[in-house]
Amino acid sequence: MTRLGLVTVVVRDYDEAIAFYRDVLGFELLEDTRIDGEKRWVVVAPPGARETAVLLARAVTDEQEARVGDQTGGRVGWFLNTDMFEHDYERMRAAGVVFEEAPRREPYGTVAVFRDLYGNRWDLIQLRRPDR
């Protein structure tokens, strides 16, 4: 079996990134292991996620630092799926998440774009069930 295990988000600081993903987005901290010196292996994921998780990788070069917050050239780069859109949207707004727009309905589901603490664009999305 092959599956997508991790995707990387380049961050400025491990601890501030953990605080955002855990305390604001509600992700679980799955691993925080010191590798050597100041390098850490930090993995977060939405509660109950069984497939893909996010590796928080601290920028260590000027080139990496330049990409913090704009890893996809301004495009939405990550899609946070939910089965409870309204609940998660309101919980995230109350926690300080900045949404770029009000929720909208599309043929594929309900979606609203938000930014993480560095400015990377994400979709909060509840996919439409095929039976609807």
Automatic annotation (TrEMBL):
Residues 3-127 form the VOC domain. It comes from the Bacteria. This is VOC domain-containing protein. InterPro entries: Glyas_Bleomycin-R_OHBP_Dase (IPR029068), Glyas_Fos-R_dOase_dom (IPR004360), VOC_core (IPR037523). It comes from Actinomadura macrotermitis.
